[in-house]
Amino acid sequence: MTTEELQTLVLTTLDSNDSIDDTKELKGSDGKEVDQLALLGALKSLADKEMVKYNTIENEIWVLTEEGNEIVDKGSHEAIVFEAIPASEEGISISELQKLLGDSGKIGQGRAFKNKWINKKGGNLIRIVDSIIDQPRIDLDIIRSTGKHPDPKVPTELKKRKLCDKHKIISYSVTKGPQFSLTIKKQARDITFEMLQSGEWKKANFKNYNFDALGIPPSGGHLHPLMKVREELRQIFFEMGFEEMPTNRFVESSFWNFDALFQPQQHPARDAHDTFFLKDPAVGTQFPTEYLERVKKVHSVGGYGSNGYGYDWKIEEAQKLLLRTHTTAVSSFMLYNLAQKEFKPVKYFSIDRVFRNETVDATHLAEFNQVEGVIADKGLALGDLIGFMETFFEKMGIKKLRFKPAYNPYTEPSMEIFSYHEGLGKWVEIGNSGMFRPEMLEPMGLDPEVRVIAWGLGLERPTMIKYGIENIRELLGHKVNLTMIENNPICAFDLI
Ligand code: PHE
């Protein structure tokens, strides 16, 4: 039945009877009970117009299970066993009965014994009564046709045998509302210009406001998962007393990106295969002159207790502009600035983009985000770096760390950081760290007592793990699904 048909049925019934005690009694034109869920829709819209009022009635009825239905159709297992045993004196052998009835024979035998319907004689089963009354079948039949049983204990017992079950059914009682009428007037939603002009608004019947309706979800900007994880990390840094470094220079000179970091000019990373160099403008020329001289010296002839690399350092190489390959370029610039003032211990961090001329695959792009931390203070040692890493990663929810000796031109000692990934069941590399070399720090003018510990990690890998993204192209670029961006929750590290 359509909603309109149901509404007409309700209204005409009310017109002749004044009220409907239980909509279960309503019959459609086909003579069948009406569907209560469809009826609810019809009642709601009539109630909105105040044409009717309704209340919900909750009824419990008993419904047979498949096995219960089978018993009504064929008899209980015990009755079937009784029927299968011939009335003769010798009865039937157990194996014969088994063949006849299969599993249901086994179940039925026990009950037939208990009911004192059958007994054993020799190896055979015999009847010990002339006739039986199959009570479960009678009870189940009553339940099947009425939904209940005069003795409420009966269905509860039968439920234990999984023969019937309790179901809740909902129906309604309905009475006339103040606007009761047999015809449904169309209701106006909004007042319109035409209604105002014609004066129709005075007579119009307006739809009630539904203050329970959910609003339309507001649209607005959404943070990219990377930005959510970045924000979480920023909070960890701030909580630990770090200052954020300005990372607004994507274009850097080779000087700050490599030379200041004691990275030799013939180092393979400085090759165009690994680094994006700029064509126009191709060079930068503004460097602190004295510092530049000291950098040149430490590379070519050494100093500060170092032999240097012993090669012919060229300014042209340092002037080449590039897209920064690591945020350590920012750290070197910041440490140089720190060295120009009276020393005070600092903790710096940055999270921003870096670029490498790499082959793009499922987990690598030619650009990615680096998280970088730097701590400068007198008397820091490798133990401080390890201890600090443990606290920092613990705040990210990463507990098991391992350190592996590594090499960076600008740190000594250097350590790769591994963490145990429970999901992958193995140790994965999560970052790189070390203590900046005197060849990097002393030419800047820093007190030789000052030690700087530093580390870097990628932002993409933890984000992909956190949000269950397998291909980096689903995280960045034109293939990104915007719904993913809108629906992903904020990032919260599983804190311990
Ligand atoms: N710059 C390093 C990298 O790009 C990370 C690093 C930072 C290592 C600071 C040591 C100290 O992988």
UniProtKB/TrEMBL annotation:
One of its GO terms (biological process) is phenylalanyl-tRNA aminoacylation. Its cofactor is Mg(2+). It is found in: Cytoplasm. The keyword Aminoacyl-tRNA synthetase applies. GO terms for cellular component: cytosol; phenylalanine-tRNA ligase complex. Gene3D superfamilies: 1.10.10.2320, 1.10.10.2330, 3.30.1370.240, Bira Bifunctional Protein, Domain 2 (3.30.930.10). The keyword Oxidoreductase does not apply. GO terms for molecular function: ATP binding; metal ion binding; phenylalanine-tRNA ligase activity; tRNA binding. Pfam families: PheRS_DBD3, tRNA-synt_2d. Keywords: Aminoacyl-tRNA synthetase, ATP-binding, Cytoplasm, Ligase, Magnesium, Metal-binding, Nucleotide-binding, Protein biosynthesis. Its EC number is 6.1.1.20. It comes from the Eukaryota. InterPro entries: aa-tRNA-synth_II, aa-tRNA-synth_II/BPL/LPL, Phe-tRNA-synth_IIc_asu, Phenylalanyl-tRNA_Synthase, PheRS_DBD3. Residues 228-489 form the Aminoacyl-transfer RNA synthetases class-II family profile domain. It catalyses: tRNA(Phe) + L-phenylalanine + ATP = L-phenylalanyl-tRNA(Phe) + AMP + diphosphate + H(+). PANTHER family: PHENYLALANINE--TRNA LIGASE ALPHA SUBUNIT (PTHR11538:SF40), PHENYLALANYL-TRNA SYNTHETASE (PTHR11538). Belongs to the class-II aminoacyl-tRNA synthetase family. Phe-tRNA synthetase alpha subunit type 2 subfamily. Tetramer of two alpha and two beta subunits. NCBIfam families: pheS (TIGR00468), PRK04172.1 (NF003210). This is phenylalanine--tRNA ligase.
